[in-house]
Design brief:
Transferase(Phosphotransferase), domain 1; alpha+beta; DIA1 protein; two-stranded antiparallel sheet; 7 helices
């Protein structure tokens, strides 16, 4: 958290200090879970922010990729004043130095890596290999984690299913584009499909949230 301070635009809670193994961060707001049944407009905005976070942590000017290894509705919070989504549990974040990977050129370092969809029967599952995340420059892990565990119909939490974007308005459901993008982002059918779906999903959610604001 100290290396990626909120003051510099990183989506983490503000670090206040530490004592032994305890870390104090500021209270951000209610957890994302409490917005599960919020009005559609609010949920679209939160979903857009989550995809933006996935993008920022994957591609940034600092050339660090920050991979979220534990993604659930309890690990994000929403600011009561500004409505901004923040990661509150930063313990399970893997930091990969892309410059170093390019320099050291481990095997297959420049081959795009696609995360495997995990259809397990527990809540908030993710499958990943730390070795691979630390040895590739282009990885879709964050898109996969956010789509599978928070946004898509595959997301399950506290007995619910359907994800944050459950029960869309009739016209959006009928159009089918949102569901198709969420599905491709969570469990892609095409090679490298998740990279493209994540990009289109970010744009589509931005468009939807502008339309509903």
């Amino acid at each position: 958290i100290q290396s990626f301070p909120s003051d510099e635009g990183w989506p983490f809670a503000k670090y206040l200090g530490a004592c032994g193994r305890m870390v104090a961060v500021n209270y951000v707001g209610e957890e994302l879970w409490s917005y599960f049944n919020a009005p559609w407009e609010k949920r679209v905005d939160l979903a857009w922010q989550l995809m933006e976070i996935a993008e920022q942590l994957t591609n940034n000017d600092f050339e660090f990729a920050l991979y979220l290894l534990d993604v659930s509705f309890d690990n994000f919070a929403v600011g009561p004043r500004d409505g901004k989504v923040i990661i509150v549990d930063a313990e399970n974040v893997l930091v990969a130095d892309k410059r170093l990977i390019r320099q050291n050129k481990p095997e297959n370092w420049d081959v795009w890596y696609e995360s495997k969809f995990d259809d397990c029967d527990k809540e908030a599952c993710l499958s990943f290999s730390k070795e691979i995340l630390c040895a590739r420059v282009t990885v879709d892990h964050n898109y996969y984690a956010i789509c599978q565990n928070l946004l898509s119909r595959h997301a399950t939490w506290r007995g619910t299913s359907g994800g944050l974007l459950h029960d869309p308005p009739a016209d959006i459901a009928k159009d089918g584009r949102l569901e198709a993008l969420l599905d491709e982002c969570a469990n892609p059918k095409k090679r490298y499909g998740r990279f493209q779906a994540a990009k289109e999903l970010r744009e589509y959610l931005a468009q939807l949230s502008n339309n509903v604001r």
